Amino acid sequence: MLRFEGVSFRYPGDVQGMMEDLSFQVEDGELVAIIGASGCGKSTIFRLINGLERPDRGKILVDEKPIETIKNYSAFMPQKDLLFPWRSIEKNVCLPMELAKIPLGEQGKRASQVLEQVGLSDYAQKYPKDLSGGMKQRAAFARTLLSGADMLLLDEPFSALDYLTRVDMQEWLLQQWVHYHKTILFITHDVEEAIFLAKKIYIIQDARPFTQMESIEVPLGYPRNRGDLKQGEIVELKESLIGKLRRSVSL
Amino acid sequence: MKKNLPSAILVLILLMIWQGVAMGIDAAYILPSPTGILVRLWELRVPLFTVHLPATMGVTALGLFISVGLGLLLAISMDWNPKLEKALYPIIVASQTIPTTAIAPLFILWFGYSIWSKVLVTILMTFFPIAITVFDGFKSTKREMEELLFTYGATSKDVFLKLKLPTALPHFFSAIKMAIPLSVIGAAIAEWLGAQKGLGYFSKRMMTQLDGAGVFAPVVLLSIVAMLTVWVITIIENKTIKWRKEL
């Protein structure tokens, strides 16, 4: 379980803080989306979770342990695939294992299992330039999975993809989530994407510094399909979220 | 082959103009013709290829080897520690304001006619592009890639070995391609100013004999060697870093 306890943070040089006394939590195995206007601090939450930034005040706990005292609790997948062009796909996905000094044989075994699961077995020896946008994102997801962390932080991973690929990738991500039972935090600008994927949506509405995120449960079970998005209740939720986002932009 | 055609045509035209002007002047000690230079190159092949070319190549290779080592050491040090960057960078830049032809005689005073006076001139001319270009290569590493590695628990050493080093590889090849002609020029200048063998020395000796074609023959040889070496490095570069455009 991830828990923010009264976290405050301000970037050095900024007059205003990014967040003030923020508290929220994410249960194990949940798929949670975070939505909000550009620059509202969604990515900062991820930077704080993965230790790239330190809170000025407050605590971030994973399984009740402060994150400073534990390792390999989360894995980050950014908007760009950030695959290293000089490494084959297999070598790219092995990177977190290499850094964790996992024996080579074990790396190969785990990599081939995950590459098969993400449908890239035939591309293990190819290079990133040989892959399409969607395939690159799947490779990046495989790399994130192979870090071994139980919590995946996905920062707008599909936003650079064309609409059809994005839709395919959303469905694919749900399958992966069901398969791996990982906790997933997912940042997106796309309200429909958030509703389709998440069990719970956190929405940042306040101007900086924000002090809370409204939590909204999505009234859909799993497995889901695109048709579910046409249900009256869901259409209403979508409109309500868009309205909230519009209001937050005008703040 | 096709892509080199325009430059080949231009070179041919320039050579034809040169040939025409040289034939018009008709004084080989002032302006020898390209064909005259080739003939002289053939006539002087034995001393040029068995004595002077190996001597110059020895200086060039040793100078380049030490420059690569020194340049990489400086680049890595500056990348590793910002304080070292602040201390070293201005000195490295200042070193390039020293006129080589003015300082080379000093090296001869210090080291005599040994190989080291000439190697030192070569190093002075070549370590700069290597150090600065490779350092720029390290600096060009994408911050988001660096951060991604840190989120996987990478140390600064991991980031250097797994990210910065490959990122700087294209810059390293560019630096080497810049340094090769400079090292040849450095060796020739040093030999010109004081040596007992080498293509620079040979060219100077031919000048004292008013042998215009003899002056040009070692220069042509130097250019050919430099171009061939750069060509080989380019082939190695193309085979090693096929991903260059993906960065």
Question: Could you give the topology of this structure?
Answer:
The complex is a heterodimer of chains A (251) and B (247).
Chain A (H helix, E strand, L loop, with lengths): L1 E8 L9 E8 L4 E6 L5 H8 L7 E6 L2 E2 L7 E4 L11 H11 L4 H14 L15 H13 L5 E5 L7 H18 L2 E6 L2 H7 L2 E5 L9 E4 L14 H19 L1
Parallel strand pairs in A: 3-8, 3-9, 6-7, 7-8
Antiparallel strand pairs in A: 1-2, 1-4, 4-5, 9-10
Helix pairs in contact in A: 2-3, 2-4
Chain B lengths: L4 H21 L8 H10 L1 H36 L1 H14 L4 H12 L3 H25 L3 H9 L4 H38 L5 H10 L3 H29 L7
Structure characterization notes:
The complex is a heterodimer of chains A (251) and B (247). With 251 residues, chain A is an alpha/beta fold. Chain A folds into 2 domains: 2-73 and 150-250, Rossmann fold, CATH 3.40.50; 83-148, no CATH class. In chain A, 36% of the residues lie in helices and 22% in strands. Chain A has a 6-stranded mixed sheet with strand order 6-7-8-3-9-10, sandwiched between helices. A 4-stranded antiparallel sheet of chain A has the order 2-1-4-5, with no helix packed on it. In chain A, a hairpin with a 2-residue loop joins strand 4 (57-62) and strand 5. In chain A, helix 2 (89-99) runs parallel beside helix 4. The model of chain A has no long low-confidence stretch (mean pLDDT 91). Chain B is globular and about 75 Å long. Chain B has helices at residues 5-25, 34-43, 45-80, 82-95, 100-111, 115-139, 143-151, 156-193, 199-208, 212-240. Chain B has 10 helices and no strands. The mean pLDDT of chain B is 91. In chain B, helix 2 (34-43) crosses helix 10 (212-240), helix 3 runs antiparallel to helix 8 and helix 7 (143-151) crosses helix 8 (156-193). Chain B has a single domain (31-242), classed as MetI-like (MetI-like fold), CATH 1.10.3720. With 247 residues, chain B is mainly α. Chains A and B meet through strand 6 and helix 2 of A and helix 7 and helix 8 of B.
